[in-house]
User: Fold these one by one.
Assistant:
Number 1:
Amino acid sequence: MHAKSSGPDGHTFERQITGIREGSTRFPRYDAAVLGFEGYWYPVMWSRKLRSKPVALQLFGRDIMFIREHGKAYALENRCPHRGVPLSLGKREFAGTWTCRYHGWTFDVKSGVLVAALTDGPDSPICGKASVRTYALKERLGLIWLYNGTGEPPPLETHLPQEFFHPEATIVGRITDRRGDWRYAAENGFDEGHAKYLHRNAAMMFFLLMPGYSRVNVEPDDEAPWVTRKVQSVEFESEYPGLGKWPRRAFWKRKRRGARVSIRMPGLLRV
């Protein structure tokens, strides 16, 4: 079953409801977080991708424009409050500002406040009375991090995995657009069972013997705030009543050591 809902800016999104009636879910905060959890920093793009031209992204159900001014990155709502034109179509007329392409409304990139309405003249009374939302933004580890929330954000470092700061760490990655929302990736990565069947005959597993099943406890990790999948026992072949043994073991395969998988807010997965 699919339900359509409306995001904070009128954007629609679909969510799948399986086995639980609308309004009776056991995890209301999780179900409401299709567009992400508020109060957290999120990595949104590579720093090197933001150069002289603006970059427009849709994040948390909102249209956001990223620009770089004198080497510093800024994030603003990508919608002029005058006629709704995307600000990312505009241009820089004055240092420290960004101007809408339609009527020349010009905003301070740091505060988002309207500082000039060019086609109204220099004494336009609308100046200082209109603004666009700005977003807290930090650059660390070659990434641009955006805060999803209002008010003073917590220090970025409190939301970053400490492994990123290891002196021998190398940070690489891939950013792609996928159908669905972030929860599919988080759930799939933390799902203990699917790899044992779905990926059993993948090419990379040709010489590896996958377990048939494992007994697993999910519990808080010693390294808070991670929650970890802790394996209690592993079975490589079992007798299924009335059916027979599964899986059938090929002589060339060798047992594979399992991975330690952890997850933490707002959707970080560690393998």
Note: The CA atoms of residues 106 and 116 lie 5 Å apart.
Number 2:
Amino acid sequence: MKSPDVNDWTQALPGLGERARQRVVDRSIGDFIRELRSLDEEQVQGILAYQRQHKVRFGEAAVALKYATQNDVLWALSQQFHYPYAPEEGRAGLDAELVAAIDPFSDQAEVLRDVRSQLVMGVLSSDAPRRALAIVSPDIGDGKTFFVANLGVTFSQLEGRTLIVDADMRTPRLHQLFGVEGPGGLSGILAGRTDAGVIRQVPALPNLYVLPVGTVPPNPLELVQRPAFALLMRELCGKFDHVLVDTPAACHGADARVIAAHCGAALTLGRRGRSRLAAIRTLLAQMAKAQVQSAGVMINEQ
């Protein structure tokens, strides 16, 4: 079977190339705030005069004159240091659950960055074999989709491109969280009948891409057991720096362990006060039997 070409499925949206990234680094905070708030020359000169008079930074002067908010200044800093997150004006289509994009300096976002760091130093290290990471859980409602979506946002704040694949072809939600509605997606690719442009770039997060499910199929397990899924995962791992995969809850059947086997690594998620230890142990044993590298167990306390 011919290996699928991911370029056929990616929309021709602008990304941050090396030259663009250099331009971002070289630009001042004032440039970003001026663009974000559409400040005219008179307003900019007023900010500069206030800055000189009070010996403060441009952002502080803009906030003092009510031409910008503190959140605008944080966003401008994030752009200058290439740490993208969604400003208030750029959150259209993003669900409030995406705390790592909307509130990147919160305690929740900090925990997610800590998990990301452990993964980068562990199963996803540069010394490890190239692999995707499946997020698996025993039951519906464990918070798996919330976790993989926000973890994907934190990975996109590193160098390189991050892809989140929605392989939960039973109860998909990633298309709703990221606002990438549309009929095309993973199910169409595996069925051999998809249009171009099914891998979508998230506009507010230029290094983040999403491959949604598309049409929910009647035969999800059979689709991920096809050779096309293994070929697809290898192709995606070669095209993206980080690939995270959402999976159906293990209570649905064998989907999660089949998907994880083709990813190469899996992180198991449970929910405090709800997940049974026996169910988590069973899932870990299934992953080990499928020769999936375990990235550990996370307990969702929400």
Note: The radius of gyration is 21 Å.
Number 3:
Amino acid sequence: MRDSLTIGTRKSPLALWQSAYVKGEIERVFPGISVSLKHIVTLGDKTQDSQVAIPEIGGKGLFTHELEESLRTGEIDLAVHSLKDLPTASTEGFCIGAIPKRGAAGDVLVSRSGQTLKDLPNGAVVGTSSVRRSSQILRVRPDVRIKHIRGNVATRIAKLRNVDNGFDAIVLAEAGIERLGLQGEITEVLGFDTMLPAPGQGALGVQCRADDSELQECLQRFHDATTAAAVTAERAFLAALEAGCNTPVAAFGRVEKTGDGEVVICRGRCLSPDGSQCIEVESSAGVTEARSLGLELAGRVKADGFEARV
């Protein structure tokens, strides 16, 4: 193995945590290696204060394009992404070298008054920039008003606490809250019946060049096969639906042991933007058939009349 590696990372506190985690895993399995972090600014970072919704700015590649360009030129050796931000179609010349063990996959509600989603007052204002989250909120609370909010985790919480911004609550990923040590901010962990996560949420994708076989072998030392099987089913479901960022699609997979071995169980949900229509599917398959399971579930959703909005 080479003597040094450079990890490309965004500068947000959460991105730095994620890259530091992967740095620590590499140093754990290869104690003699020197791993450095290189800060890279993405389009998503440049537009954090924008009032324009993410799908209108750039969609899935919003936080990954510049990292991939640095990887392509050899400026960095690998990039760490939140897997939910990484497009399901791999960019030519790159691969996901490892998917570490997943963190919490779900979403949480942070409310200014300490009220749960059910107890928020009629017409309460809930902040999110995700159509997946907004549609599922409206599904159970059609009376609330959704207000666009962007920024990193701490910024969104600060916007909530400032009464002048008019938010009663916001929805965030549980993994991000936990990784930043902000568990005390959580008002309610939203159950999957209410809020199914984005495909890949809570998991990391460690991206490298496809021709760098030596590094891929290194990364496999902390690759988690159980997490990989679960997110493979989720991301195959999303990919087969050809859904853009304007389409509320959610999925969660889990691996369980049975008498015949391990199986992956995947649950998918597709909604209309206002939450009034919902198609939900669930099935299981052997872990080696995770991708086929996701495709099967997507086929069932399409057969029920789902049409993606690009």
Note: The first helix runs from residue 13 to 29.
Number 4:
Amino acid sequence: MKFFKEWVALAVMLAITIPLTADNSAPKEPSAVVRLSEPVESDEHAETFGDKLDKSMVVQSLHSVLEAADHHLDNPFALRVAVKKVCQKKGCFFVAQDGEATIRVAFKDYGFFVPTDIAGKTVTLVGVLKARALTEDEAAHYSSDLGEEGSIRAGLMHEIEATLVQVPRG
């Protein structure tokens, strides 16, 4: 009888404890890739978003574009650059990086988006350089979209307005 009472006490204790310690939440899924635009061109090597790539354009580096910023204001250029961060809400902009130089890349007339998982890839883009003043509210909004509060600061800045972005596969 003593054994029976101990067994019942143990069963009651487990019945109370297990629900309190069990993790009944659903397994955490990795964040889904947001892909709001379909590519205009696609092959086994890359996907192109926006316009089709004119392969006759000379591809430049971000350093060379920024060194001749006055020349590139509103004049189209092709650029190969690494994607540092991407807007995680829609893929509506990204931050490009070449060494220490970084620049925000937006898309002409909000006309297309890139997949949100392209950070770390080196893309080819065609665009123009724009100079503009970024407000505190815009800086906070863009930082929030990147998931990194305070990563973009207000003030006079250059950004690229891209008409196309070609993303390598893989």
Note: Helices lie at 2-21, 62-67, 69-72, 136-146.
